[in-house]
Design brief:
There is one protein chain. Helices cover 21% and strands 34% of the residues. It has a single domain, classed as RNA-binding S4 domain (Structural Genomics Hypothetical 15.5 Kd Protein In mrcA-pckA Intergenic Region, Chain A), CATH 3.10.290.
Length: 77
């Protein structure tokens, strides 16, 4: 079974993991983000990440629910 990958552009980098989960609509709020991260449901670059404040940079991957998002540097405003 293949892991679907999605690119998401982020204009202000680095972005914290909790903020990214909200930006990508993977969680509804910071509380839900904290729970998913603490329960080991979120992988960053293939490893479980338990820090909500983990800073993400272009090229980093976030996997949750069997799908992967690739951080892409967005264009400046």
């Amino acid at each position: 079974m293949r892991n679907p990958q999605h690119k998401i552009s982020v204009t202000e980098l680095p972005i914290r993991l909790g903020q990214f989960l909200k930006l990508a609509n993977l969680v509804q709020d910071g509380f839900e983000a904290r729970i998913k991260i603490q329960e080991g449901e979120v992988l960053v670059n293939g490893s479980i990440e338990k820090r909500r404040g983990k800073k993400l940079l272009p090229g980093d991957t976030v996997t949750i629910g069997g799908e992967t998002w690739i951080i892409d540097e967005g264009e400046d405003r």
